[in-house]
Amino acid sequence: MLGALSSLVRPGRDLRVDFVRGLALWFIFIDHTPGNLLGKLTLRNVALMDATEVFVLLAGYASGLAYGRLLEREGWAPAAARVAGRVGTLYVAHIFLFVVFTAQVGYSAALLDHAAYLDELALDPFGQEPYRAMLEALLLRYQPHFLDILPLYIAVLAMFALALPLVARPLLLLGLSLGLYLIARGLDLAPPGWGDAEWFFNPLAWQLLFAIGVVLARADPAWLARRLPWNRWVAALAVLALVAVAVLLNLVWHGPARGWEPPAALAAWLAGVDKTGLHPARLATVLLAAWLVAHLLPAQAGFLSGRLAALFVLMGQQSLPVFCSGIFLSFLGRLAIEVSAGLPMQVAVNLAGLAALVAVGAVSAWYGGEGSRRRKPPAPGLPAQPGAVTG
């Protein structure tokens, strides 16, 4: 079985990117399942970052590789058109996800007489003003909980289409991106939401992380090795800093229940490390973690080609259908854990969820492979589907 899955993995890629992205998608499923004990071990509980930062950084990296090559070969207009097509695909996927998830949660709330589901997931406006809510969802101004990641990606990818000519001038691209980030944070500038609501992920700030991923993808490896070399003492300090942050986070969050009151200043600072505007501490954490992983996990690491790693590599290579399926599955997992939160159910939910996500990835990979054999082969040097995974 695992051997058959390995055969569906697309070769000729940096499998580290796909493997880490697959892990991030599984973490998103876990974090979106309330009551899941495994959630205590995911990134959001041990670092000033979570799977979203990983996802956006790697989305920028994948986009830089795929569309950067297309830009070099065919110019801005064809490359921008392909990016626009990808934006359209993501938009359709988001609206489909919105409709099905709303139906899933609404039906469950009515069947189980548990209206709190609607309130917790910010779906109650849909029950009060369904036509207006649908319109606002189409405009991306209404984003219920768990349905705010794809709008972020749609927005940053649309901005990337306009910024494609700057891919060849990375310093200018980073400078403009950083400037927009500082303006967005300094002036509290963000796209408008519906009523008093705001975008949970402000794309005007998060575009910086995406742009960094693009630049890293297009940079010469030798140049990167010179500018960001490995240093074991720096790495040791980085690991110590990450461990210290994990300890502090858990002391602040769980210390009072154990009789330890954290300093008020520390608690106040951590409360201000916002996710909406991609706080600099969150940005620094994900970049530091990326540096460590890039050096500690070689591109040719043997286990990446193994059967167990293939589960996550396959998920990472088929991230859009896997992500959408994970949203549905996480709510089903919640319903199951509410029936029984014991260890057997916890194990069953997590194993069944992982198996289902891998199955979605396998079916998507198989279908894509079948389709590619019916299409004309791509020109030499170009990927078959630029950005087909996450941009």
Automatic annotation (TrEMBL):
The keyword Transmembrane applies. Pfam families: OpgC_C (PF10129). Coiled coil: none annotated. The chain crosses the membrane at residues 46-67, 88-110, 145-164, 171-187, 199-218, 230-253, 279-297, 309-333, 345-367. Keywords: Membrane, Transmembrane, Transmembrane helix. Residues 369-391 are annotated as: Disordered. This is OpgC domain-containing protein. It comes from Falsiroseomonas bella. The lineage of its organism: Bacteria, Pseudomonadati, Pseudomonadota, Alphaproteobacteria, Acetobacterales.
